[in-house]
Amino acid sequence: MQSQKKRKVAIFDVDGTIFRSSLLIETVEALIVEGIFPKNTKKKYAKEYQAWKDRKGSYEAYIDKVVDVFVSNIKGVHYGEFMGVVEKVIDSEKERVYIYTRDLVKTLKKKGYYLLAISQSPKGVLDKFCKHLGFNKVYGRFYEIGATDRFTGKIVDEHLIGNKANIVKRAIEKENLTLKNSIAVGDTEGDISMLELVEKPICFNPNTGLYKWARRTGAAVVVERKDVVYKI
Fold first, then answer.
1. What is the pTM of this model?
2. What Rg value do the Cα atoms of the chain yield, rounded?
3. Residue 42 has what DSSP assignment?
4. Chain segment 133-160, per-residue pLDDT in tens
5. Which fold has domain 7-231?
6. Rounded to an integer, what distance in angstroms lies between the CA atom of residue 12 and that of residue 56?
7. What's 136's DSSP letter?
8. How buried is residue 6: exposed, middle or buried, by Cβ count under 10 Å (0-12/13-18/19+)?
């Protein structure tokens, strides 16, 4: 019996790479508006947001604080109620994407690539967003749901999503994929482990850490500013 032909794979980070913001941030903001999270929740990451906005603090510090706020407030929230908010967020924000990566996803899908998304955002949000774009598989943070369909506040297998290279290797084996002619797109140094695995790594709108890595390794650097896309 002839073995099934392995498919080429293209791997994408999502937040800041395809989506022009953070799905987690947009979801937290919506949960506050809907009254599911307390109204004063925003104050808990306001300092980090302002520091980043004023270029006196890092985006990483800001997003880490938002993650902390999400984890501390999601406990006890009903899954159905959460997904109702997610539906609204995706319906409103699904077209808020970068031109370069949006078109790259479409092109690679037409060429038969297996599209794999890996992100630190909640998997429930990613599933809705990436389905719209035609992704085959999505990996994100999975928040435990208890017997009453309410979040427990625990993250399942957090160590796995923290290492994107391990996720890629698992997907390659489980989904009968090949790294030959493989592509990966990321925007921060947290994506380096997966970028190192592929034949064509693309550093898209990279932060300082990833840009330095790209200069050392010769990886492609692509920047999208307003409606202009250019390579450095």
1. 0.91
2. 18
3. G
4. 999 999 999 999 998 999 999 988 877 7
5. Rossmann fold (3.40.50)
6. 29
7. S
8. middle
